[in-house]
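Re: beginner question about structure tokens

> Can someone show what the tokenized structure looks like for a real chain? I only ever see the sequence side.

Sure, here's an example I had lying around. Input first:
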Amino acid sequence: MSVMEVTEIMEILPHRYPFQMVDRIIELNMETGRVVGIKNVTNNELYFQGHFPGNPVMPGVLQMEAMAQVAGVMLNSREGNKGKTAYFMSMNKVKFRKMVIPGDQLRIEVEPVRMRSRMATVQGKAYVGDDLVSEGELTFGYGG
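And the corresponding structure tokens:
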């Protein structure tokens, strides 16, 4: 079922612990640009120490970062982008719908909206089970 395991993702993205937010890519369709990634949310995440003690909740901005990293796998894998980095520039139309807590598994689905040579915009949605927990439109610029 897995298309890419964490070690393969690390060859594409520059992120490392504790900021690597993608554990697995389960779908990568370079023809359509659709990519689906998994983030296993564990009680060992550093941010749970302060967000919030006794009531751990994954920060929404980190859900967006996980979404951006899933998108980055697809963007950095595109022809002509190998060796480049897709830098997260903006997020729009962001909504946080449900809390994400330790033990949840985020399934992050990303599809392209606009793809240009130096910029890209994608639509991302994060689910826990069948529940939509967050969504947003993310824009990236490419760097060498």
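Each token stands for a local structural state, so reading them left to right follows the chain. The beta strands are 4-5, 24-28, 35-40, 85-96, 105-115, 119-128, 131-143.
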